[in-house]
Every structure is written in C-alpha cells, then in structure tokens.
Amino acid sequence: MHTRLIIALITPLLFSSCAYTLASTATTAFTGKGIGDHALSTGTGSDCNVLNYLKGLDYYCETRDIAETYNRNPF
C-alpha cells in the first residue's frame, strides 16, 4: 500500500519536470532565452541571458540606459 502512495506522489513530479524541461527547451529554441532568463529579465528590467555568460562575456544581465538608442541592425 505504501508503494502505491509513493508512486502516486512521485509521478506528477516527474511529469511536471519533463514538462518544464520541454517548455524551457522550446522557449530557448525560439527566443534564445530560457524560462528563467525571461523571468529574471522581467523582474530586473535588464536583458538577462545565460548564453551571454557562456559565450565568455563578463555579465549575465545587460542593463541598458534608456536615454541611449541601441541599434544592433547591421544595415
């Protein structure tokens, strides 16, 4: 009886973990930022992306001055 209870409690956790991983992977594929990056960007008002840090840049979040115009378009 205890085994069924344990399985009943653990199974939703496994599926929710898979769903989060799938959602985060899809978000990263489409936007270049994971769910955590989006949440932190919204909360801080900065452009946060873990790939910035992994690329060797010295920052995780890029804070932009709203008084300046940033144009990253090469044309």
**Number of individual domains:** 1
Secondary structure: helix percent: 55-70%
Taking pLDDT < 50 over at least 5 consecutive residues as the criterion, the unreliable ranges are none
Distance between the termini: 67 Å
* Percent of sequence in beta strands: 5-15%
How large is the count of helical segments?
Answer: 3
The 3D shape can be described as elongated
- State the order of secondary-structure elements, H for helix, E for strand: HHEHE
Radius of gyration (Å): 19 Å
Counting DSSP E segments of at least 2 residues, the number of strands comes to 2
Please describe what this structure looks like.
The protein is mostly helical and 75 residues long. The chain has one domain (2-62). It has helices at residues 2-31, 35-44, 50-54; strands at 47-48, 61-62. Strands 1-2 form a two-stranded antiparallel sheet. The mean pLDDT is 76.
Question: What's this entry about, in short?
Answer:
By secondary structure, this protein is mainly alpha-helical. It has one domain.
Keywords:
75 residues, mainly alpha, elongated, two-stranded antiparallel ribbon
List the helices and strands and how they pair.
Elements: H1 2-31, H2 35-44, E1 47-48, H3 50-54, E2 61-62
